Amino acid sequence: MAWLPDRVRRGGVLTLLLVCLALVAAVSVYDAQLSGRVRWAGFTALAPVVAGALLPFWPTLVVGAVALGTNLIIYGLLPSDVTFVSRLFAVGIVAIGVTLGITVCRVRLDREQRVRGLTIARERLSLLTVASQQVGSTLDVSRTAQELADVAVPRLADFVCVDLFDPVLRGEEPEPGPVHGPLRLRRVAQQSVLEGVPEAVVAPGDVAHYPEEYILSRCLAEGRAVREPMRLAGDRLPEWLELDPKRAEHARKFGFNSGIAVPLRARGTTMGVAVFIRHQRQEPFDDDDLLLAEEVCARAAVCVDNARRYTHEHRTALTLQRSMLPRRLPRLAAVDVATRYLPAGGQAGVGGDWYDVIQLSGARVALVVGDVVGHGLYATATMGRLRSAVRTLADIDLPPDELLTHLDDVMIRLRAETEQDSPGGGFSATCLYAVYDPVSRACTVARAGHPLPALVLPEGRVDQIELPAGPPLGIGGLPFESAELLLPEDSVLVMFTNGLLESRSDGTTGGIAELREALSQPVTSLESACDALLKTMLQEGPRDDVALLLARTHALDTAHVATWDVTPSPEAVATARELATGQLAEWGLAEAAFTTELVVSELVTNAIRHAGGPIQLRVIREHGLICEVSDGSSTSPHLRRARVYDESGRGLFIVAQLTERWGTRQTSSGKTIWAEFSPDAPLPV
What angle do CA 530, 532, 536 make, to 5 degrees? Predict the structure, then answer.
């Protein structure tokens, strides 16, 4: 009757019920004989009706047959004192009751089947809704795969595992499918109705190997979902499952009965496979379950591919960021340095934080920490350009405030060039620039909208260095000012970006207080100090990029520095050579005397001839030798190549050939020409 309309079925049942009641009433009033045995036939007819309302079809049919057969014997054959009409009524009532009971049973079962189908459809629709809401909540590949497994258990399967190709986890695009032959996949996620996922043979993060005949291998080779029984007649396992003894053992132990393997494929890329297995529920997967698994995996595959693409872009930006940071810090006598860079967690992306340590003339060192506002490749590229600009400006020995002024102009030009293409229509940056001189122990610092640095004194006290406020780079129009302070030897200068403070949930003020508390703790080295500081300040992980630079200062005393005033006369050149070579002999560097004599002779001669007094000669012993000659002229010399018959113009050329680096820096009273070379360096041929 399932093919009949609901209205017809309801009308038929009602008609049979009315006929049954009419016959019962007719039998009850027909004859006085019905007050005896025959009258009970009306009540016998109720048994099949009740059975049809409560029991399945076959038990209802048995109850009806028994009731009809019993009624025929009792009311149709045995009694001799009952009229034919009464017998006919009695048998007819039961026959109608049986018919009504079977009809009621069929209608009820049909309705139950429809309700069950609607319930299953509703559950499957609910699963799709939950999958759309919960899968892909983050841009992490492993987390997205785990969300797929969590959604499918226990709504669809009792055990789910997700295996991906290794390139997907690195953000790379795997080879396009189909994939043939044995598989080597990485177990990324798994879930089970049993605590601890005991069905799994492979732990998350391990490599899983599958034979060519295995269900996963066939799934990826055919490029479609595959549904297979995992339990055959006689409690046997399929041949493909017997190929892996360990997995076959788990299948027997937990009673696997059905499995589905679905390829995770999106935008033409096959990233892995998801496997669904039932062992607690006895009913195997059907075609509707296969379609549901395909739909859920299709949506999850898009989310996994989005996470893969984000991972690729994030790694690209991070690689670009790290490539623009110093690969190897210089070994300097002025400071010991430890640095850290942490990219932002979550979906913030890589930013434009950077640090740098720049070797300057005169054994000095420049310490730089900066932060480009924003995240992404624009911020990273801008950071690289600013770092290059800082190094270029530092090479000409500009004071910190002047350097920030020029850097501000660079930032304004960069913003004008890329304003239409950059996200947000522009950007700015902050910077902290410090120059430390180990000879005088003076540190000159200037900042452009950057957090104030901290200073850890040798006795352990932590102070915050107060500096004049400067606007962020790219604003323009406002001047920058610097401050100079004298640092005790073994002081630690702490420079950082605002990500170290903004990662605190209690705000910047609390972050500074905790920063000072963390820096006051005793540590064994600068490296351990960096680790301890980051662990204390970033307990919840970095919300923004963090660049950290710690520098322990050293001083160069008279055992490393020798200074002489030189009389501005030609006779003083020989005296300067003797003083320099004598000092080298005291330092045990007599092998460098020849080069030092030539350099000192040329620099002092140029100062006497072209500049005039006061003239000062200084020799610094660092990792190499540094010769400096200061004079009262602000005119900087230029290297030129003398022609064959020229009698002058070869001095700086000789200095450049004998030394590793040379240059000029302006001072408050004139300029200083310096040259640096290694004592054991061979002479040029």
Answer: 120
